[in-house]
Every structure is written in C-alpha cells, then in structure tokens.
Write a structure and sequence with these properties.
The protein has 152 residues and is mainly α. It has helices at 5-34, 39-66, 72-95, 100-116, 119-130. The protein contains five helices and no strands. The chain crosses the membrane at residues 12-33, 45-67, 76-96, 108-130.
Length: 152
Amino acid sequence: MITPWYRAAAYAATVTLASMAVQATVFLLLLLLSGNPAGDMADLLITPVLAFPFFSIAVLTVTRMVLPALPRWRTAAIDTTLYTLVLLFVTIGFTASEGLADAVDFGFVMLTVGLLSLQLPAALAASALAQPRLLPVVGASAPQIPARRTPA
C-alpha cells in the first residue's frame, strides 16, 4: 500500500527538522565551549541551511509516496541516504559559483560536518523512530450480513 501524502510530508518534516535541531544544538554547544563568536559558523552555514529543508522535505515526501511500506531499518537506510545526497547536492548547488572543484570539495566538507555535528546520525534515528507513522491504517470493513434465504 502507498502512504498518503500528508503522512509522508509529516514524516519528512520530522526527519529533516529533528536532525537540523540536533545539529543546531551541537553547534551551539561547540560555540559556547570554544568561546568563538557566532559569526564564524554562521558564515559557513547560512546559505545552504535556508534551502536544504525545502528540498529535503520534498524529496523524502515523494520517496515515501512512491515506495511501498518497508521495514523500519530499510526505510531509515533509504531515507538517510537520500537525505545525505540532498545535503551534498544543495551545498554543491549553492557554492558552484566558486568553481565546480571547490563546490564539490565544500559539499564533502559539509557531509563531514554533518557527521561530526550528529546531523546525519540524527536523521537515521529520526527516520527509524518516525517510520511507524508511515504505515497506512486499513479500516475494518463493515460486517457482512448474510443474505436471508427465502423458503421455496
């Protein structure tokens, strides 16, 4: 069975926003512990962060609407892989004006930052925890009343 669009969109938003919240929390803790000004990390992340949630939610929603209901960890593996690819391509797309080689390098730097800031592991965990919401609920059919037999 195919997942309804509203459940797929809610799932995609949960995975994307929860993992970004974990990343923001880790960055905030790093800033507080290091004593560096907030502008250092803001310059690094501001452009891709604004567009990434839109693309991630769109890709994950379409994926969950197209694929049938899968086991929990298979869903988490597929969606985390797509989440990672979207992060890579959005970062490359926003930094391509600096040259393709530098954009690809920066894309992989952002994937490393995503691992170290626990964004990608949080996406895996959020995907696995939110997966039961994807399972379509089939309503019980109305009880069938047997037809009356008329005596002949």
